[in-house]
Amino acid sequence: MAPEPPLLSMSGITKSFPGVRALDGVDLDVRAGEVHCLLGQNGAGKSTLIKVLAGVHQPDSGTLRWRGERVAPRSPLAAVRLGIATIHQELDLVEHLSVAANVHLGHEPTRAGFVLRRGAATSATAALLERLGHPEIHPGRPVGTLSAAQRQIVSMARALSHDVRLIVMDEPSAALDPDEVDNLFRIVAGLTAADVAVVYISHRLEEIRRIGDRVTVLKDGRAVARGLPARSTPTRQVVAMMTGRDVGHVFPARRAQAPAQDAAVPDPVVPDAALPHRGPVATAATPSPPTSAPVLSVRGLSRPGEFAPLDLDVRAGEIVGLAGLVGSGRSEILETVYGARRPRTGRVLVDGRPLRPGSVRAAVRAGLGLAPEERKAQALLMTESVSRNVSLSALPRFARGGWIDRRAEREAAREATRELSLRPEVPAVAVATLSGGNQQKAVLARWLLRGCRVLLLDEPTRGVDVGARAELYAVVRRLADEGLAVLLVSSEIPEVLGLADRVLVLREGRVVHEAPARALDEHRVLDLVMNAHRDETDTGPRERAHRNAPGSDTRPHKDSYKDAYGEGNPVS
Amino acid sequence: MTQHVSPPRDGTRRTAAPAGRPARRSLPVRADVRTLTLLGVLAVLVLIGGLTRPHEFLDTRNLQLVLTQASVIGVVTVGMTFVITSGGIDLSVGAIVALSSVWATTVATQSHGLAGILLAATLVGLGCGLVNGVLIAYGGVVPFIATLAMLASARGLALQITDGRTQVVTVRGVLDLGERETYVLGVPPLVLVFAAVAVAGWLLFHRTTFGRRTIAVGGNPEAARLAGIDVRRQRLYLYLLSGLCCGIAAFLLIVLAGSGQNTNGNLYELDAIAAVIIGGTLLSGGRGTVTGSVLGVLIFTTITNLFALNNLQTDVQQIAKGAIIVAAVLVQRRTASTA
């Protein structure tokens, strides 16, 4: 429609990393002077896309056109020369250098080629900061002494110190106060008025409403929606696109038929999924009639600033889901339950016995296992073999006096991976060569081998190819059927609804609703997850009442105080 | 044009990607290539020795000398291999060897005979390792700094004990170990000790939970922690192990020199680190090889011997060593990226 070509047009961009396809034919076009918002969950491919744009990654295929001409920036410097600047989420500033030195890093004003003209750098920096509405930041101050918001301004000044036509901002508001966000928006408006385009990445939909012109939604490495009008597209539609699940995704059936509270609610579960076997014991799909004592109990657990005091129970054979958007405290809760973070109050009990707070080893000994969100960084030894990764937590089982029976180890690892149908069935293969789904299976196999009783799953299908997810769901359900208690965290609402028996909805570190998964549907959860005003009124009555009862509140706190500060695991 | 919602595609297309095909490089094979390369280098060095100094180099006494010299630094290198594989570094090994050797050769210690000397040397090594380990594992001090401080302090203490004098060993049993009569089938006892330490180190590294945890801690400390491994305790044990190796090396040095000196073990830290690195252990941790380290030590010692036999000065030796380190690392980088 537009007679002149867009400022930037990316088409069919694909990019694969070992084990996962991060981008799968993404198109994006940005016009001069617009604010183009890029939306998507963690792992949807946003970061990879902007890294391609910034010259950090080279795409496997696809084309990039800049003002109508085909380009291929091979380095961040090349991208900047074209006029594309990126403000990364982890701000890339040198803490011990001054503001002016950071702003001009790599293109310092010089005399005779190498003598720094510090005065010129200082005055140019002061002018840029003035333009950004922050004349109070002194160009000579070391960046390390600045606040997060001020550092962001410095990053922006650095971007503007080049002659840029497009600025990419990766979650610029994440570390900012509301006032500072307002200032950020003023800056963005000033940029677009000067015909500079902004690609704005954020999880906060309300911000996108305020400053965005058009929206592109990424999911699983594809653009599920392009160029939506930012202000008029219904929020629910946008979030549904971010968190939605492809049709044809099968979740394994639950064993017990839970009495649905609302029969009119459509059930997201496709019930005819094949399941290898089902145990005879009926599980509690509702919180009310417990068939057994809970394996995992959490009482009054909190970390101020991350999540409010939390109570929850998970029984054997039950999958409990925590649903919430980024920043709702999901992962923090899981890691605190696991002992990887030290709680301020509250405690975690396994079979009624309290765990030493803040001790991963105590948790593992008691039978907890965590499949963390960042598999590569937090769970796997990437260059080691599958077998060694799987046996890592259960080494003493194959060892006598520290001496490893390697055949027994290999066999046990082989059996555990076979049980989860991990492919290839070669235990000697390095984990780095596996696909995302199989890497996740290796993590699960580790806990299976350890004989864990409570499995904590943090975004279990993150970075897992869409096709492999159904298989992973079947695995998790089967493990639960075999008697594991599972606590699941996911930002993909259909995943929680489809997999869990019972769901706790989180918003800003607080449980706002608890219900059997069958009593909920995606739209209801979306409303709960997003709506910041309709709080407390519609929560599950039982658990909420329990939480507010003063008697049940004070005792655990007193005990937990002692637990948290009495005996010590020094923080590593 | 402005609004375009693409229909959801089915996921089958993407599953074909990297799941199936067994990986080309399974780890043991690659390790073998590296070991063979090092053996090849060693063979070439022996060949050069045989060609340039046929009579001197291949003489039994010379070979015994080479192996004996390799033994002292070799024992230190075995401990260093573990520390570096765990992502750490121990700069204090030379100083610990010096301190152990002088502590074990004081008049008071010598009065307890061979057992007293051996016990003192190992205990002092373990003690220094304990201090290193506690500082690093529980004090949160960076290994570089903690062991650098130990380097300075242990050397200082060694000087204080000796007052700069050489402490001559008078214990007969100790001196005998250096004599030709005690050789077993032509192999000096010191070399046997080195061989025993190397074999024990290899078994510890490749066959025990201790070795496995060392690799895990070095490869991904966060993953090791979340897998339930006590990362701090493991770190403590690693520096203890390094200290123990230094103590054993100090004993070997006492036998070899017949004395204890505060200048003993000078620059051992650099020799040991260099041998570990050219052996193929990653300086960043997570991958290590005891075999490679032992071969690295043998290569360096042989080079030193060749240079000495050919009347080349130590300055030339140093330059050659530096070049070898760089060449080895460059070759490893290439094989790592192409494998």
Q: Assign an overall shape of chain B.
A: globular
- Gyration radius of chain A, in Å: 26 Å
- Biggest sheet statistics of chain A: 6 strands, mixed
First-last Cα distance of chain A: 58 Å
- Can you write the helix and strand succession of chain B as a string? EHHHHHHHHEHHHHHEHHH
Can you identify the CATH class of chain B? Mainly Alpha
Stretches with pLDDT under 50, minimum 5 residues of chain A: 257-290, 532-572
CATH topology category name of chain B = ABC transporter involved in vitamin B12 uptake, BtuC
**Share of helix among residues of chain B?**
over 70%
Provide the spatial order of strands within the biggest beta sheet of chain B: 2-3
- Major β-sheet profile of chain B: 2 strands, antiparallel
Largest interface between protein chains, with number of residues from each side: A-B, 68 and 50 residues
Structural class category of chain B = mainly alpha
> Which architecture name of chain B does CATH use?
Orthogonal Bundle
Mean pLDDT of chain A: 80
Commentary on this structure:
- Chain A is α/β, with parallel strands linked by helices.
- Chain A is built from 19 helices and 24 strands.
- In chain A, strands 6-9-10-3-11-12 form a 6-stranded mixed sheet, with helices on both faces.
- The relative contact order of chain A is 0.11.
- Chain B has one domain: ABC transporter involved in vitamin B12 uptake, BtuC (Orthogonal Bundle).
- Chain B has 339 residues and is an all-alpha fold.
- Helices cover 73% and strands 2% of the residues of chain B.
- The termini of chain B are far apart.
- Chains A and B meet through strand 12, helix 10, strand 20, helix 14 and helix 15 of A and strand 1, helix 1, helix 11 and helix 12 of B.
- Strand 12 of chain A pairs antiparallel with strand 1 of chain B.
Keywords:
heterodimer, A: about 575 residues, six-stranded mixed β-sheet, about 35% helix, about 25% strand, globular, B: about 350 residues, mainly alpha, two-stranded antiparallel sheet, 3 strands
